[in-house]
Write a structure and sequence with these properties.
Structural class: alpha+beta
Strand order of the largest sheet: 2-1-5-4-3
Helix content: 40-55%
Distance between the termini: 57 Å
Protein name: PucR family transcriptional regulator
InterPro entries: CdaR-like_regulators (IPR051448), CdaR_GGDEF (IPR041522), PucR_C-HTH_dom (IPR025736), PucR_C-HTH_sf (IPR042070)
CATH architecture of the largest domain: 2-Layer Sandwich
Shape: elongated
Largest sheet: 5 strands, antiparallel
Family: Belongs to the CdaR family.
Strand content: 5-15%
Order of helices and strands: HEEHHHEEEHHEHEEHEHHHHHHHH
Length: 414
C-alpha cells in the first residue's frame, strides 16, 4: 500500500507528529494512549474538544472516572477483543463526547489506543479505515516504548523487593538510587497486599497490572506480583488521610477485580503508615500478619484490613514465638484436652465460648444452645479438671490468649 492510499505510510519522528497527521486526515481531535491509559501524544491544533480530553491532557492520563465508565459500558473489553474501530457514545456524567477508538495491537497484545472525537461529524467508513491504518503505523513506536518500559519496570521491581526484604542501604542512599530510576519515594507510605484465592494466571496478572496502573484513588509508588499476592507501596497527598485512602483503594480494587473477572473475593491487608523509607519491610510484615490472622480467625477479624485495628491479635505472633521457643503448653488446657479425648466431651469448646462471651454465662449458654444449669456444671468440671479459677481475670485472659495461639499453631500459614 502506498502513501496515496495510506497517508501514514511514511516516517514520523515522534508520536506527536503521528497524532497531528491522524488529526489532519480525520479532521478530528486525536489522542494516543498506552495500554494503561497514560497519554502519549495528542493532536495540537484542535479548536473543539470535550472535558474528558482536556482532563486527560492536563493530567497526562485518562481520569479514573472515565476509565470506570468505559468499562461499565463495555467499551474497554470490546477494544481488548478486536482490532476494528469501536464507536463510543457520549457519557455526559464524565464529560465524554462521541468518539471512535481503535486498539493498537501486536497480535493479541494491546499496546495502546487511538481516540478520535467526532466534534464536527461522525466518522464515515473511509475514516474508520484510515483510523485502522493509523493504529498499524503507531505499533512500531509503541513496541519500542514497551521494550524501554519493561526494563524500567524490572528495575522498579528489584528496588521494591530490596525495600520489602530489608536488603537496602540508608534512607538517603535508597532515595538517591530511586531518583536514578525516575522514582520519587514518598515521605509517608504504607504497604497494601491483595491476596487472591489462587495463584494468578497470565491473563489475571495483565488485568491486575492494568488496574494498578490506572488507579487514581491513591498513588501506587511501587508494585509487584508474587504468587497469588499483589503487593503495593501506596501514598497520598494528604498524609493524614493515607490510612483511609489505602483502605478505600483496597476495597475498590477488590470489587473491580471481581466485577471484571468473576474471581472469588480477594483478601486484603494493610500495614501501618510510616515516614522512614527503611520501614517498608515492617509495613509489609504487618500487612502479611493481617492476612494470616484473617485466615485463622475469620469470624473475629474478617472485616479488619489495617494492622492497627487487630488489637491484641497483632501480639499473637510474638506469643506464639515464645511458646515455640520454650516448648510451652498451658497445663490447664493440656489437662482439658486430654479429658476431652478420653471422654469424647467438649469442655475446651465450652471454655472458649465462655471466654469469648466475656464470662457472661447466659450469653455463653445461648451460644452453645444449652441450659444455664448445664453450662454451670460444665464450668465447674472445667475449673476442677483444669485447676482454674474462672473468677480470676488474669487467668481467664491467659487461657484466652493461649487458646488463640494454639489455634494459630495448628493453622496453615498463607
Amino acid at each position: 500500500m502506498n502513501a496515496e492510499t495510506n497517508p501514514f505510510n511514511r516516517s514520523f519522528d515522534h508520536l506527536e507528529a503521528l497524532a497531528d497527521a491522524i488529526g489532519e486526515v480525520l479532521q478530528a481531535p486525536v489522542t494516543i494512549e498506552d495500554a494503561n491509559h497514560r497519554l502519549l501524544a495528542y493532536s495540537k491544533h484542535d479548536l473543539q474538544t470535550d472535558p474528558a480530553r482536556i482532563a486527560t491532557i492536563i493530567g497526562r492520563r485518562v481520569p479514573e472516572s472515565v476509565i470506570g465508565s468505559l468499562w461499565k459500558d463495555g467499551v474497554i473489553p470490546k477494544l481488548m477483543e478486536t482490532d476494528e474501530p469501536v464507536r463510543v457514545k457520549s457519557i455526559h456524567d464524565v464529560g465524554l463526547g462521541d468518539r471512535v477508538a481503535v486498539s493498537i495491537r501486536k497480535d493479541r497484545q494491546v499496546l495502546g489506543y487511538i481516540w478520535a472525537l467526532e466534534v464536527h461529524r461522525p466518522l464515515d467508513r473511509e475514516a474508520l479505515k484510515q483510523l485502522k491504518l493509523a493504529a498499524a503505523a503507531a505499533k512500531i513506536k509503541l513496541l519500542r516504548l514497551q521494550t524501554q518500559r519493561r526494563k524500567e519496570d524490572e528495575e522498579r521491581r528489584d528496588l521494591f523487593w530490596e525495600l520489602l526484604t530489608g536488603h537496602h542501604q540508608t534512607a538517603a542512599q535508597t532515595k538517591a538510587k530511586a531518583r536514578t530510576l525516575g522514582i520519587v519515594l514518598p515521605d509517608t507510605f504504607c504497604v497494601v497486599i491483595i491476596h487472591f484465592v489462587s495463584e494468578m494466571n497470565e491473563k489475571l496478572q495483565q488485568i491486575v497490572h492494568y488496574m494498578i496502573t490506572t488507579t487514581q484513588r491513591v498513588r501506587p509508588v511501587l508494585s509487584v506480583i508474587s504468587g497469588n499476592q499483589l503487593i503495593v507501596l501506596v501514598t497520598d497527598a494528604n498524609s493524614l488521610k493515607l490510612a483511609a485512602s489505602a483502605a478505600d483503594f483496597a476495597a475498590s480494587f477488590c470489587q473491580q477485580i471481581q466485577d471484571r473477572t468473576g474471581c472469588l473475593p480477594p483478601a486484603k491487608g494493610i500495614g501501618a503508615v510510616y515516614e522512614d523509607i527503611t520501614s517498608v519491610e515492617q509495613s509489609y510484615k504487618e500487612a502479611l500478619t493481617v492476612l494470616q490472622i484473617q485466615a485463622l480467625f475469620p469470624a473475629e477479624t474478617g472485616a479488619i484490613v489495617h494492622y492497627h485495628e487487630l488489637g491484641y491479635y497483632r501480639y499473637l505472633p510474638y506469643f506464639l514465638e515464645q511458646k515455640k521457643l520454650h516448648k510451652y503448653e498451658n497445663p490447664s488446657l493440656k489437662r482439658l484436652r486430654a479429658y476431652d479425648r478420653e471422654h469424647q466431651s467438649n469442655l475446651l469448646e465450652t471454655l472458649e465460648t465462655f471466654l469469648v462471651c466475656g464470662g457472661n454465662a447466659k450469653e455463653a449458654a445461648d451460644a452453645l444452645h444449652v441450659h444455664t444449669n448445664t453450662l454451670s456444671y460444665r464450668l465447674k468440671r472445667i475449673a476442677e479438671i483444669g485447676e482454674i479459677d474462672l473468677a480470676n481475670v488474669d487467668q481467664r485472659m491467659t487461657l484466652f490468649l493461649d487458646m488463640k495461639t494454639d489455634k494459630w499453631s495448628d493453622g496453615e500459614p498463607l
